[in-house]
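Handout, section 3.2

Students often ask what a structure token actually looks like in practice. Rather than define it abstractly, here is a full record for Flp pilus-assembly TadE/G-like. The first block is the sequence as you would receive it.
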Amino acid sequence: MLKERFKGVIADRRGVGVLFMGAVMLLFIYMLLGYSLYVSQLLLARGALLKATLAAAKAGAYQVDVNVAQHGGKNMDRRAVERAAEEAFAGNLPPVLQRRAGIKNVTVNPRLVKVRAKCSVDIMTPLGPRRDSFETECRAVPRSIRRG
């Protein structure tokens, strides 16, 4: 009875080939859509980290301006600049990245504030979770220097 029901598929092997090709095409589409979603999530995470790093650099540059206004640029409080950068970084970071992102280092001088941040994220791919890490670097020039 079973042979009679699938007689056309067994006798003519094209049906099995079409089924196999259909399964391969579905797998290909699944992988393509899954990895395009992975790339978009990775770009969103990187953009969020870049935004937070830029906010940290700007906050550090503002703190340099405050220091220049108070002390004339002498006895610069580097710890206050780093603290302002860390607070701005934490405030602008999305909750998803709070645990895995942080400031790597803050370079401070009267003419430039440079902030480097590092992050690692776990993103699902069609073949399972994958951890990617990346770094961003932003620079900000204090307004007291830009005015000339």
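Discussion prompt for tutorial groups: Residues 12-146 form one domain. How would you have guessed this from the sequence alone?
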